[in-house]
Amino acid sequence: MFGFLKKSPGQTPTAPDAGIGESAEPANTPAPWRLRLKAGLARTRAQFGGRLKSIFSRGKVDDELLEDLETLLLSSDIGLDATQHLLYHLKVRARRDRLDTPEAIQRALSEVLYELLLPLEEPLDLRTHRPFIIMLAGVNGAGKTTSIGKLAKYFQAQGLSVLLAAGDTFRAAAREQLQTWGERNNVTVIAQQSGDPAAVIFDAIAAARARSIDIVLADTAGRLPTQMHLMDEIAKVRRVIRKADPTGPHETLLVLDATFGQNALQQVMAFDKAIQVTGLVLTKLDGSAKGGVVAAIARQCPKPVRFIGVGEGIDDLRPFTARDFVDALFE
User: Fold this and answer.
1) pLDDT tens, 111-124?
2) Tell me, what's the pLDDT at 46?
3) Nearest CA among 120, 179, 122, 175 for reference residue 152
């Protein structure tokens, strides 16, 4: 299928790229988080990394190995487009560097995946506006309200003040859950018993401006992309935010449940059409073997992955870093 270059007699192969899987700990990434990330990706690693070891354990680089690798990538929710991309660049690297051992090929695959995911690593710049308005959307059950509570804690740890807007006015449970997070983090929650969600968020922005709050986290009701009237409604919420602040929302985060796998791509496309998604929060990676969907996102609908969640703890939602993510898959 691919015909990797073989080492000529008497020729010493070029050493594979150094440092793959052995990156230094970034200054802003605490070691405990890397350990939690590795633990959180255990199911994906078992699905991907475990079978990868089996493929490379044969000790022979040939077309059969590449066919097995292609099958593995496709079955790991990486998707056809990303799979073809990874295998093509793996082929180029193998020819260029004369890689002819399974260990070298595996290290090269790790690096190619890292290069694919690196453009998704784009932290939020919260210094551009005050208040910085973040609108959150997603399907029912994606973990949106919980993510808001965790984000509030994360931003507070950065020394920023936060205000929450309970824009999900359809479910009393969602409003109560957000108020619980507000109490837990000592954060004000702007809410109404019922009414127009856009009006709630409008009032929250006014309150944040009056109190010199740094960040507004605006919750919205969960909805399916096929529910056109609800998609129209969330588009209205975005328009009302722009009335409250012509520069807002400054970030529109789509919360994705990692267990959805390839279906997450359709969600990104549908919500982007309605509300111009600027970033993603990928939740429940610890409960899924479908973490490979990040690669599919990178190829088919690239949006910055602002945060990933790998557990239920309040500190289990952190900014996405491509090196840590790839290392957790291969280690």
Assistant:
1) 999 999 999 999 99
2) 81
3) 179
Q: What percent of the chain has pLDDT over 90?
A: 51
Token pair 């999900």 is found at 168
Residues 6+ away with beta carbon under 8 Å from 85: 116, 299
The residue type of 226 is T
Question: Would you place residue 308 in the very low, low, confident or very high pLDDT band (cuts 50, 70, 90)?
Answer: very high
Rounded CA-CA distance 100/274 in Å is 48
End-to-end CA distance of the chain: give it in Å, rounded: 28
HSE, side-chain direction, 13 A CA sphere, residue 243? 12
Closest by CA to 210, choosing from 244, 159, 252, 167, is 244
Place 6 in a pLDDT band, splitting at 50, 70 and 90: very low
Residue with tokens 């690096």, as numbered in its chain: 111
| Whole-structure pTM value | 0.86
Q: State pLDDT tens for residues 127-168.
A: 899 999 999 999 988 989 999 999 999 999 999 999 999 998
User: Of the candidates 282, 254, 244, which has an alpha carbon nearest to the alpha carbon of residue 117?
Assistant: 282
Measured CA to CA, the distance from residue 79 to residue 297 in angstroms comes to 9
Q: Which residues contact 77 (CB under 8 A, 6 or more apart)?
A: 261, 262, 290, 291, 292, 293, 296
**Burial of 226 per CB tally in 10 Å (0-12, 13-18, 19+):** exposed
